[in-house]
Amino acid sequence: NISLEDIEEVEFTNDGEHETLHVKQHLHIQTMTYQFTKSIDQDKLYEWLSNLPDSIYRVKGFVKFHGYKFRL
């Protein structure tokens, strides 16, 4: 299991499950996929997201937070 703190310390590479597009190489775009295995603290995630560098263009997905029955 990886905490939000651990994510900040890891250098990610393409997981190999997605097709490599030539435009990614031309534009120097990198992707990262992460799947949480359990619920996480909503406030810690918001704090972590607010501290991402301006070079992060998009983050998407569904997350199960502590205390919520469904993923948000």
Automatic annotation (TrEMBL):
The keyword Oxidoreductase belongs to this UniProt entry's keyword annotation: no
InterPro entries: CobW-likC_sf, CobW-like_C
GO terms of molecular function: nucleotide binding
UniProt xrefs under SUPFAM superfamilies: Hypothetical protein YjiA, C-terminal domain (SSF90002)
Annotated CobW C-terminal domain residues: 29-69
Gene3D superfamilies (alphabetical): CobW-like, C-terminal domain
Keyword Chaperone in annotation: yes
Keywords, comma-separated and alphabetical: Chaperone, Nucleotide-binding
Name of the protein: GTP-binding protein
